[in-house]
Amino acid sequence: MADENKPSTPPEGAAPDAPKPAPAAAQPAAPAVEAKPAAAVPPKPPAAPPKPAGPTPQPLDTELTRRLKQHYGTGLEALSYVGQNYLVVDHDIIHDVLHLLRDDEAFDYCVDVTAVHYPKNEKPFEVVYILYSFPKNERIRVKTSIAEGEAIPTVSDLWVTADWLEREVFDMFGITFAGHPNLKRILLPDGWKGYPLRKDYPILLQDKEWVQINLGIESGQ
């Protein structure tokens, strides 16, 4: 009878039983991945504030303007813009108004006569007179508009200084001053074509042409 307590041996030639592998250690559970919150949409920047309105001409009411309006009626408008006083006068009465300002209102010095070109306007040229009164220590501007080819009376008979000032306006803008004693170019050569301060003037083209014709060289422009 076999001894029940004796360990059994495998039959001769049989491989012994392989040891059983130890059970795998339990792997720690992967930490739960927290869901990232959706990126917040940045708020739209506030709209830019509206551009503030710029200064505008304001009616000018003084003893002088009241006298002038009483005399000339609707042919004259008095305005002030950022502290600069000016009159807008019909072309037909411009010489009379300037004469009155010199003789009755003591504007004894004509500081400047100049012009501005507005090509799209029905009357594209605005002639501007800047006057000064030594007795009053006061300055005023007088403006009038004229059409292309329309002449304006000279004021060289009122202020001698207007002689060369009007010649410069003629030279740069082509505006004719009727009654001027010697209306010809003062800055540019007599043979120059056109009027350089008009806004539609091709200055570089004319410069090259004049230099080539009169000097026989290429312009440096």
Task: Please explain how this structure is put together.
The protein has four helices and eight strands; from the N terminus they run E-H-E-E-H-E-E-E-E-H-E-H. The protein folds into two domains: 58-187, Beta Polymerase, domain 2 (2-Layer Sandwich); 191-221, no CATH class. The chain has helices at 63-72, 94-103, 162-173, 203-215; strands at residues 58-59, 76-81, 84-89, 109-117, 125-133, 138-146, 152-153, 177-178. The N and C termini lie far apart (132 Å). The protein is of the alpha/beta class and 221 residues long. Strand 7, helix 3 (162-173) and strand 8 form a beta-alpha-beta unit. The strands form two sheets. Strands 1-2-3-6-5-4 form a six-stranded mixed beta sheet.
CATH-derived topology of the largest domain: Beta Polymerase, domain 2
Structural domain tally: 2
What percent of residues are in strands?
A: 15-25%
What is the CA–CA distance across the termini?
Answer: 132 Å
Fraction of residues in helices?
10-25%
Side by side, the strands of the main sheet go 1-2-3-6-5-4
Poorly predicted parts: none
Which term fits the overall shape?
A: elongated
| Helix/strand order, N-terminal first | EHEEHEEEEHEH
Question: What is the arithmetic mean of pLDDT?
Answer: 86
Radius of gyration over all CA atoms, rounded: 47 Å
Helices and strands, with pairings:
Blueprint lengths: L57 E2 L3 H10 L3 E6 L2 E6 L4 H10 L5 E9 L7 E9 L4 E9 L5 E2 L8 H12 L3 E2 L24 H13 L6
Parallel strand pairs: 3-6, 7-8
Antiparallel strand pairs: 1-2, 2-3, 4-5, 5-6
How do you describe this structure in short?
The chain has 4 helices and 8 strands. The chain is of the alpha/beta class and 221 residues long. It folds into 2 domains: 58-187, NADH:ubiquinone oxidoreductase Nqo5 subunit (Beta Polymerase, domain 2), CATH 3.30.460.80; 191-221, no CATH class.
